[in-house]
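Go through this pair.

…
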Amino acid sequence: MDNEHDIHKLWQAEIANTTPLGRKEPHQPEQPHHTEPCELDYLYDAPTIDGHTSLHYRQKEVSNKLFRQLQDGKLTIIQRFDFHHHTTSMVHNKLNEILNTTQSNDHRCLLMIHGKSHQHAPAILKSYISHYLTLHPYCRAYCSALPKHGATGSIYVLI
């Protein structure tokens, strides 16, 4: 019997830090998204995107539900930015300022208007903004806007 008792104690010690099947660990609250400014270097290598191409991107922690709300235009737009007639250098500086100073939470949505370019010209600003936002850690998701907000000439950005 002592042998059985010892085996039982050893078994209990081995499973002490495990979670039984069917039981979930308590939910850990999310940490704030960002606390320190992030500076990205000037990005020259943005791939060229057609002006009528629909854009979408999201980080893995953004839920399907939240991303769908962004795509459907259901999140309140807290600020609008029109980048028509801006250079990529000007847009770069403005994006750094926007992403590093805007408070972050699940409902912070920005509307960025970049335009579609002319029919045969590449969409330089659209390409640059898409590339920049994909690389910036404070951008949680973005997608092309609804037609009432500019369709493929604008994007909703979740920070």
Q: What stands out?
A: Residues 144 and 155 are 4 Å apart (CA to CA). The chain has a mean pLDDT of 79.
